[in-house]
Amino acid sequence: MTRRPTSRRSMLRTVTGLIAFVALTLNATVAAQGLPAEPLRVGVVLPPETGDPLSDAVATSAASGAVMADEEFAFNAEMLGIDFAVLSREATGADAVVVAAQELVAEGAFVVAGGFSFEETAALAAWSAEEGVPYLNLGSSADVFRNEQCEATMFHVAPSAAMYLDSLAGWYVRSGYREWFFVRGTDPESSAQLQRMERGLRDRHFGARSVGEVALEPDEDPAEAVDRIRRSGATVVVLLLPAGEQVRVLGALEEADLNVVVTGFPYPEAQTRAFYDASRDTASELGSGHRASAWEATLDAYGARELNARYRLRFEDRPMETPAWAVYQAVKLGYEAAFFGGGIDADSVLGYLGSDTSVFDVWKGIGTTFRPWDGQLRQSLYLVKISASEEDPFTLATLVGELPAIYMPGTDPVERLDQIGDLAAVTRCDR
Amino acid sequence: MRPQPRRFPRYAVLVSLVAALALGAAFAQEEDAYRLYVANEYSADITVVDTATSEVIDTITISGRPGEVRPRGMAVSPDGRIIYVSISDFNPQIETPEDKIVAIDVSTNEVVGEFRAGGNPERVAVSPDGTQVWAALEAIAQGAGYDVATGEQLANFRVGVEAEGVAVSPDGKWVYITAEATHTVTVVDRENLEVVKHFLVGNRPRVVEFSNDGSRAYVSAEIGGTISVVDTSTHTVIETINLGLDSRPVEIAVDPTSSRIYVAGGGTSAVYVIDTTDNSLVETIREQMGRRPWGIAITPDGTRVYTANGLSDSISVIDTECLCVIGSIQAGRGAHSAEIGVIPGED
């Protein structure tokens, strides 16, 4: 008996059958676990490089976070037979980010992450509310987005200003710094930070007090501010200024040889090694102090060691900084909402993200949830010490504190994380 | 009349005494002796405890470079005579000679073998026939099997990101490997050496253990605060035991003598006792617990549970009758995992 040669057609039929079988098997697997069957796309609006070193540090970090998230979560999804990808667009400015978000949705994104500035976050928040698209705020900590300008479609991966400021107050007051002086900008966001900080000191740190404040226009000579700080008796100065302005004012304070410690508001740019380097280069003493951060590359617990190590290996030994962490986690939140939320329609995604039973692991060693009253991701924050002399970008800064401390057996984890930031009782958000 | 005490000749007393001692010794020899092994992540050594006395009888140095080399997960051979320890370094993405699995002879506490397991092996499991060791390779998202006799890698499989837990089913058919970052369990058919399924469990799954009869597997999810109960005939999660947000379940010890499982609640300094007949929480042991119990092991006779407490560098001893802590033993720095070895009694 001779075997008939396999024809191309029958071969094709076999292959097609096999593919169909595999697809059916995978779909059955997916369906059996209630997983989405359609392709999953998470959109990220990334800031482009502009030539400014601090802004570019954010852009590079955020883009890397998107790449890593795409690689890892596509890898994970593929295991489960699901087509997953991160779509990204570079855009800057309010109008441009909205156009980018629209394009991402047109390409299939069911959730969009972005916003590293106040204006961009405001624009994306308004767009998401109008279009009904879930939006994850990556970089704006402005409290107004958790209050008057909150949206039911917006969730915040970026910690709020209130969280950062409460952490700074907790760390410094506990260390004995009780006389606070604030150098702020003339913009509403900076004014809101000042009010929140003063309220925090007044309400929660009875031994501490504000001893003065001064407003600075961009590029304004800080001589008068320096003089007022000197006469105020301040022990700690907080720069509620954009990152570049913080570096400039640090230089003036250093030159004046003030006997204070200085920190600043942790805008995304001010949570990068580029900023830390500029800070200590400009002011070797005052610029090598402590900073608040949402993420730290030297965090060595809770699986953070592995996440940080993978990032360094993937991106030529660069430390994982907050923008990269925020993008990575935003993608993960979208991914998990799709996998566990029952669908990728806006209601399912928003419902899953907002549920108090949806617990997220953001490599901070504790299950996190979004606050139902303002959409803020509960999380611990880190205190970082800038090294005065270290050249290695990785150890240029090191982790020295965590607030709230997550290892507190016997306490409620939600209450623990709600030690920082604004609670439901004071929210002005009507979600 | 007052009864008179019976008088025995002196030689009879002596003979009886010798006989009793011999008999006692014979009985003592028949009983297995248990040795508790605790892997200390930061001091790079293994604490060995005689469970009969709760005394540390040995400390096995794994590396002279503590802080660089870290012993973590352990497994015991089916006969209880060999402890396997997964060794890695603190640079997850850098391949170093430290990535290996070592075998310790329980009777001598000597390292009697080692083989390379690149990719940061975090936990290990032994096949029921004792011929293979399986490892979760954390840094490279793989699970791998090794021939114990030769150290040869038999196969390696892609699993989820941050592979952590691994277990071989009692019938030897399946290897389950968890992945922390992806919330997945990967199922490997051990005979055919192929992946048959990936499935989702709770948030940040750490450890997987099979029930004594192999019909169920239990997967702890640290961030999710759950234990997924898996039907191993279909590799499907059939129930989720919710221990509560922030219950932080990590290692699981399956009681060989009852239907209970004991779960170390790392970040909460607690141990959860679950009855698997109805998957109910029987008890939460907190009083006198050491800090951050990460590892947990139960003696083969089911009378004692030991936890490796990473933040207090200690071992808590739990009596399974009272479900309470009855003692604490000094361990090395960063106690991570616990396992029980057996020195068989002589017939």
What features would you highlight for this structure?
heterodimer; A: 431 residues; 5-stranded parallel sheet; 4-stranded parallel sheet; disordered N terminus; B: 347 residues; mainly beta; Methylamine Dehydrogenase, Chain H; 4-stranded antiparallel sheet; globular
Describe the structure.
With 431 residues, chain A is α/β, with parallel strands linked by helices. Chain A folds into three domains: 1-30; 40-160 and 300-368, 3-Layer(aba) Sandwich (Rossmann fold); 162-298 and 381-426, Rossmann fold. Chain A is 43% helix and 16% strand. Chain A has 13 helices and 14 strands. Chain A has helices at residues 8-32, 53-79, 94-106, 118-131, 161-174, 188-204, 223-232, 243-255, 273-282, 304-314, 322-340, 346-354, 413-417, and strands at residues 40-46, 84-90, 111-114, 135-137, 154-156, 179-184, 209-215, 236-240, 261-264, 290-293, 360-361, 367-368, 381-386, 397-403. A five-stranded parallel sheet of chain A has the order 2-1-3-4-5, sandwiched between helices. Chain A has a four-stranded parallel sheet with strand order 7-6-8-9, sandwiched between helices. Chain A has a three-stranded antiparallel sheet with strand order 10-13-14. Mean pLDDT of chain A is 92; it is low at 1-32. Chain B has 347 residues and is mainly β. Chain B has a domain at 36-245 and 334-343: 7 Propeller (Methylamine Dehydrogenase, Chain H), CATH 2.130.10. Chain B has a four-stranded antiparallel sheet, with no helix packed on it. A four-stranded antiparallel sheet of chain B has the order 4-5-6-7, with no helix packed on it. In chain B, strand 18 (226-231) and strand 19 form a beta hairpin. The radius of gyration of chain B is 22 Å and the shape is globular. In chain B, 53% of the residues are buried.
